[in-house]
Amino acid sequence: xxxxxxxxxxxxxxxxxxxxxxxxxxxxxxxxxxxxxxxxxxxxxxxxxxxxxxxxxxxxxxxxxxxxxxxxxxxxxxxxxxxxxxxxxxxxxxxxxxxxxxxxxxxxxxxxxxxxxxxxxxxxxxxxxxxxxxxxxxxxxxxxxxxxxxxxxxxxxxxxxxxxxxxxxxxxxxxxxxxxxxxxxxxxxxxxxxxxxxxxxxxxxxxxxxxxxxxxxxxxxxxxxxxxxxxxxxxxxxxxxxxxxxxxxxxxxxxxxxxxxxxxxxxxxxxxxxxxxxxxxxxxxxxxxxxxxxxxxxxxxxxxxxxxxxxxxxxxxxxxxxxxxxxxxxxxxxxxxxxxxxxxxxxxxxxxxxxxxxxxxxxxxxxxxxxxxxxxxxxxxxxxxxxxxxxxxxxxxxxxxxxxxxxxxxxxxxxxxxxxxxxxxxxxxxxxxxxxxxxxxxxxxxxxxxxxxxxxxxxxxxxxxxxxxxxxxxxxxxxxxxxxxxxxxxxxxxxxxxxxxxxxxxxxxxxxxxxxxxxxxxxxxxxxxxxxxxxxxxxxxxxxxxxxxxxxxxxxxxxxxxxxxxxxxxxxxx
Amino acid sequence: xxxxxxxxxxxxxxxxxxxxxxxxxxxxxxxxxxxxxxxxxxxxxxxxxxxxxxxxxxxxxxxxxxxxxxxxxxxxxxxxxxxxxxxxxxxxxxxxxxxxxxxxxxxxxxxxxxxxxxxxxxxxxxxxxxxxxxxxxxxxxxxxxxxxxxxxxxxxxxxxxxxxxxxxxxxxxxxxxxxxxxxxxxxxxxxxxxxxxxxxxxxxxxxxxxxxxxxxxxxxxxxxxxxxxxxxxxxxxxxxxxxxxxxxxxxxxxxxxxxxxxxxxxxxxxxxxxxxxxxxxxxxxxxxxxxxxxxxxxxxxxxxxxxxxxxxxxxxxxxxxxxxxxxxxxxxxxxxxxxxxxxxxxxxxxxxxxxxxxxxxxxxxxxxxxxxxxxxxxxxxxxxxxxxxxxxxxxxxxxxxxxxxxxxxxxxxxxxxxxxxxxxxxxxxxxxxxxxxxxxxxxxxxxxxxxxxxxxxxxxxxxxxxxxxxxxxxxxxxxxxxxxxxxxxxxxxxxxxxxxxxxxxxxxxxxxxxxxxxxxxxxxxxxxxxxxxxxxxxxxxxxxxxxxxxxxxxxxxxxxxxxxxxxxxxxxxxxxxxxxxxxxxxxxxxxxxxxxxxxxxxxxxxxxxxxxxxxxxxxxxxxxxxxxxxxxxxxxxxxxxxxxxxxxxxxxxxxxxxxxxxxxxxxxxxxxxxxxxxxxxxxxxxxxxxxxxxxxxxxxxxxxx
Lengths: 574, 705
Fold this sequence. Notes:
Number of strands of chain A: 20
Mean pLDDT of chain B: 88
Helix content of chain A: 25-40%
Distance between the termini of chain B: 41 Å
Strand order of the largest sheet of chain A: 2-1-5-4-3-6-7
CATH class of the largest domain in chain B: Alpha Beta
CATH topology of the largest domain in chain B: Nucleotidyltransferase, domain 5
Oligomer: heterodimer
Number of domains of chain B: 5
Mean pLDDT of chain A: 92
Strand content of chain B: 25-35%
Shape of chain A: globular
Largest sheet of chain A: 7 strands, antiparallel
Structural class of chain B: alpha+beta
Number of helices of chain B: 16
Low-confidence stretches of chain B: 620-625
Radius of gyration of chain A: 24 Å
């Protein structure tokens, strides 16, 4: 390989990624629902002739959506082999076991033709506003209660829209205009990407995508195995606990680093449950692969080459490899712990690039009837405390491992009956550490509905807060409070009226390294900014700050720190 | 020859202020460049104008217009040198500017960073008030809370206030009342209302833009006031025109109230200057590379049209990535700006690696070699040590620069700690800053799906021609164009930029219930406003053209597209059927399909008022080069890329270089404001307009030249 070849590969590779980014931006602009148009809950990608991932948009997308595309497009080509596809065909599907683990993520994919030959696929996956059934949340007992499943089918056949399928979907979902509008936006985005791929292939003077696909995948696989060779190797175990409607769930992970392979097995994990929180193996794998990539190879763009040295197994029937017809809609309540386990296990093998546990998010889902008599269903995600990093604080009001954003309050209030009283960071919510966990963010709101509306405020950290690492302390727990006193299980769907005021938050991120090693100037800045209290500065960070002038008493601080013992304001249960 | 009619372009950079004088009556040009006074940039402007007038034997009365752009605003944000700013917002929402969109812009990067908000949390205060999404008051404004908040912020030294309430794009009443309350008690405190700065939905973008406006307002208003006063001293009493970020020009009043619209006003000039040169050379796709004292800018121009964005970001903090900067909702030329200029400071980080920028030494103290007390080594110091710059010809010899001081700072801060010699350390600084720029350029281009190879790199700014060769090699660009007057290209560009002004009004309506009379009245009002602004810029009425545009979308969509409406000046003929045609044509062009069954709505209406571009020909070809010499004027020791040895490079003076004669690098070409550094990888030639072309010998075939 000469330098010139290397440069060509680099140019082609970044071109394909840029096309995916453009595909994502087209989808953003053409979409109809808030989850797509504002929060950007979707992914876009390009595949070779065999359905192997070559490039994806990296600035957007969720962990499960992006990996769902990786698996799902191959399933699509199994059912509709590339030789059978015609120009103008568009495929669709949302099977949780074949794609990204719940029915809300609908994948729409189209073959790319160049000189009358099918050379690859372009695909998008988007979280639609509704799929019927009980609605978004963990309440369903099985898949049948979770709404409509679209088997892999032709959405458009040689340019002709499958109107029966559209009619069938329309009568089965709420907000059908938005759902169908979003699906058509996906078709549009794929077309735009497909055209760009063709003109690039022409410009690169190639016949298809096979050469560039092979080159990209091999380089990525080699980069990962090279990285593995530098690591200490060995096996470690890590366990995380979650609380699902009063039932404790254990996620247990055993990770083995070999010279050219990473194996992760989830034996010892709790069995699947009759709530909508189960993960299909695709989703579990998505979060394993994501954590490994963040830790080991963040700079190399994602593609099929990365998955070759990674082996993910979980016993069939456990909550991380659920059997049909398990309910799966709110599987995000479990996936956070998959990510935590992989980072925890890597940390135990002395891999330095890890992150403390994150508290992630609250997903508010409500449906009911507006005072005008119109029905509504609305999903409003807000982000909470990200875990601290080895060299920096966790971000406040941002989530991890996902990356999807929120919906602006002004858009929420224009498009839904949700009225927001307050949305701000909570003091002392970030897990203390030399690097502090991100602050939790509280949302206080009411729903201006007629009669009763259903409401879920899904969060993951009600009982088990996001833990710190290397001596860092856990972040605050999540909360779901009605009218200031009624504490509700955050996995529960409840009925509310327009007089109820709901307060919810998702928790703070865990800290990194002991809190009494934090730079006192940073502690002072946090106190001045109201995100750390004077008491916490004194008791947890061991920094003496004068309460009148807000200045550091350095001598006193030194004395306190010299005698510091680990002390945590919260009762540490784990 | 008649009485002189001078047009002056002035570009105020973080380090230098550049001037270009053009006399419309005679075609004469004059140039000037001097250090920007960091405390009083207006002083440098007047001094430079005086110098130019003296050389042209003219007076202030001969000046017809001054068009002026500045990087003061963007530098204040990048270097965090704006006013101490406070934010008054709806109670419960003070973290909006910090939580932003709550989106991580990179899925895999654990080290991802966000810019610190321009207003720290301690200066963000919520007050009781609330509007709903229709602009109706749900909770009245608590005026005593406002007074207490302002009192507190004033007591901690806040000089400027942003007032940002939820849904104020629908009703500005509460924000306006806060402005009144502040005006009563503290008339000198600067106040910016989000309902005035950017009356658009989406709180993060609106708040962020308003906060940035407030952060920079005290700087610009002090500066413009003082500038007007000083220009009166030289008998100039007309309008001071300002360049806006998207390429339009406007009156100083707009600049004073909305400084953030000037955020990229400097670089815009260079882009238009480059477009003029490219057009003259028959080149359609260029990559503008402007490297000044404080920052470097890159801008892609396809088909001679710069791309304009309304989702702008400044001061990206993390690997130049999209999402890592401060969001601004305003029309701006879509360019990349990075902290890499001649004044960028080089230092060693904790790992012992050289880092260059984004901190800049500015004009005071400036690089060590300026001798104003700077002790930090900068890019200019390295350039001087490497032999690229001539100590006695800096600014044409007006300022002397001291190689000994440059060597001392590089030695102390870089060479000794690393255990290498001065030359190697200087070469490492030069290469690091070039690599920084190349990396940023790659990301910027790949975000657009573009490939640098198909572009001509047009280099300007004082440091641009010094660094362009190395940048071009890193990006595999084959052809470089360095225009005559490259060292002051932005100031020149202001004179050739189209004079245009854009007005926007929001009036939401569906096509099926199209309010023809109201919209017609609105558009006529906007046309009048545009006419007034251009009249103040001395454009005759009959030369002004108007273009109408509408921001439209399918009902239910979250994002709109801007639809050109091809009526030149007949707003009364606007009707729903015609608008439908325009929208469907544009939607189909962008997305490839339309939805006949979904209703369509228009949100905002825009009128762009434009004067025909002036196309002055500054140079009567070859006459100025009658005294050319085939032989270099000197030979100079230049450090080779290994950093260990030196070689003799020929030095040409720009005005003595032969026209249309192919020469072979290495060579240095000097004019008073810049030096073109041509390594041995390049061939070069000066064309009849006195622009210098460079071709990479390895990647260019003869037929491409």
